[in-house]
Amino acid sequence: MAFRILILILSLGIFSYASLDEASLSLKKDLKSKIFQKVNQKNIKIAVINFKDIGEQSVKAKAGEIIASALSNHFINDSDFIFVERNRMDKVFEELKLNVSGAIDEKEIKRVGIILGVDWIITGEVSFAENEFIANARVINPETAEVIAAASANIEKETILKETSELYNLSKNYFLITGGLSDFSDLEVNTSQFGLELRHNYSKKSHIKFSFKKTANNSELLDKVLISKWDVGNPSDDIYAEEKISSISSFEITYGFVKKLMFNTRLKAEAGAALNMLSSKQRIYYKNGSTSMGTFNIPVSNETTYYLPGINIGIGIEKNIFKSHILSFDVKYGKLKKLKRELDAGNNSQALQNYINSNINSKKISSDYLYAGISLGFPF
C-alpha cells in the first residue's frame, strides 16, 4: 500500500510540470481573465517585454526571453488585443538604450508605453527551483506603473532548455560561406558555384539574406554557328561565330520563413530577387584559321557582360552545429529575364553584322537555373 502511494505521489509530481506552450497559454488565459475584470473595452493594445531572469539557471537558459516569446504568440492570435510586434519593441529599446532583459523601472515603463502607444505592458520574472522554472507575469498600466493583473505558471526544465539550445543557435546575424552546383542548361553552364551571404534573423521564424555568388569558369560553348561566305559579302572563307558564357555572378536579396522540425533541424522556404551578370567571350574566325584585313578584319575576339534581373524560390533544411553555427542544405529554382544576345562582328563588313543580327542576336535564350548547395553559417 505504501509503495502504491509513493508511486502516486511521484506520478503527480512528474505530471504537474507543464510544457512551455501549455504554461504560456495558461498564463495568457489567466491574465486575460483578470484584465477584463478591470476593463470592458475590446482591442486593448498591449506589449510583452522580456521577463527578468532571476538566478544563474534562468540567466543561463535565457528563460525570460523564451517565456515572453511564447506568451506573445498566444496574444498575437487573440482578436481582443492589438499586439505590438517584438521587432518594433526591440527597436524602441535600442533607441532608448534600455536593457531588453525586462528589468526596467517605473520611469522607463512609462517612456516605453508612450512611444509604443500601448494600454498595458506585460512583463515579469522567471526563477528556478526544484527542477522547474517558475514564471510570474504582471500586467502594468504604463501611465501609473500600477499592476492591474498577475499570474504564475511552472514550466518543466527540459522544455526551456530545448528552446534555449535553439535560441543560442539563432543569433541575430550570420556570415555564411556557400558552395554548390548550378545548372543553367539552356546557357550550357553546368558548374560549381561559390559565394558569401549575410543573414539577419528577424525571429526564430523569419530572416533576410544578402548574397553574392559566382560560378567557376565554364568551358562549354553557348553557340557555334557556321556562316557561309556567300551570305556575308564573299570573304576569303566561311566563318565561324561562337560564344560562351564564361562565368555568372549574382547579387541576391532573399526573405525566408523557418519551421522547426525534429532533431533540432528546421525547414525553410525562401523567395527573393537577383541581379545576374553573365560574362561572355565571343570569337569570330575563318573556318580554315586564316586572317584578313580591310573589309573583313578577322579573327575577332570580344568580351561583354549581360545583366539579367530575376526571381528565385527555394527550400532547405538547416541544423544547429557547434552550438552557435548553422549547417544548411538548399535547393533553389531561379527564373531570369531571357538572354538577348549581343554578338558583335567588330570592325567588319556591315553585311556580316546584319547576318549576325538576323540569325543569331534575334534569338532569346532562357536563363532559368537550378541550384543545389550547402552553406555554413558563423554568428557575429
What does this structure look like?
- This protein is an alpha+beta fold and 380 residues long.
- It folds into 2 domains: 16-168, Rossmann fold; 173-379, Porin (Beta Barrel).
- The chain contains 8 helices and 17 strands.
- It has helices at 2-15, 20-38, 56-61, 63-76, 86-95, 106-116, 157-168, 350-361; strands at 44-48, 52-53, 81-83, 120-129, 132-141, 146-156, 173-184, 189-201, 206-215, 223-227, 239-260, 265-286, 300-321, 325-336, 339-340, 364-365, 369-379.
- It has an 8-stranded antiparallel beta barrel.
- Helix 2 crosses helix 4 (63-76).
- It starts with a helix and ends with a strand.
Topology of this protein?
Elements: H1 2-15, H2 20-38, E1 44-48, E2 52-53, H3 56-61, H4 63-76, E3 81-83, H5 86-95, H6 106-116, E4 120-129, E5 132-141, E6 146-156, H7 157-168, E7 173-184, E8 189-201, E9 206-215, E10 223-227, E11 239-260, E12 265-286, E13 300-321, E14 325-336, E15 339-340, H8 350-361, E16 364-365, E17 369-379
Parallel strand pairs: 1-3, 1-4, 2-4
Antiparallel strand pairs: 4-5, 5-6, 7-8, 7-17, 8-9, 9-11, 10-11, 11-12, 12-13, 13-14, 14-17, 15-16
Helix pairs in contact: 2-4
Brief rundown of the structure:
This protein has 380 residues and is α+β, with helices and mostly antiparallel strands. The protein is 26% helix and 46% strand.
What does the oligomeric state look like here?
A: single chain
Number of helices, where a helix is a run of at least 4 consecutive DSSP H or I residues:
8
Portion of residues in helices?
A: 25-40%
**What order do the SSEs take from the amino end to the carboxyl end, as H and E?**
HHEEHHEHHEEEHEEEEEEEEEHEE
Q: Return the CATH topology of the largest domain.
A: Porin
> What is the number of domains?
2
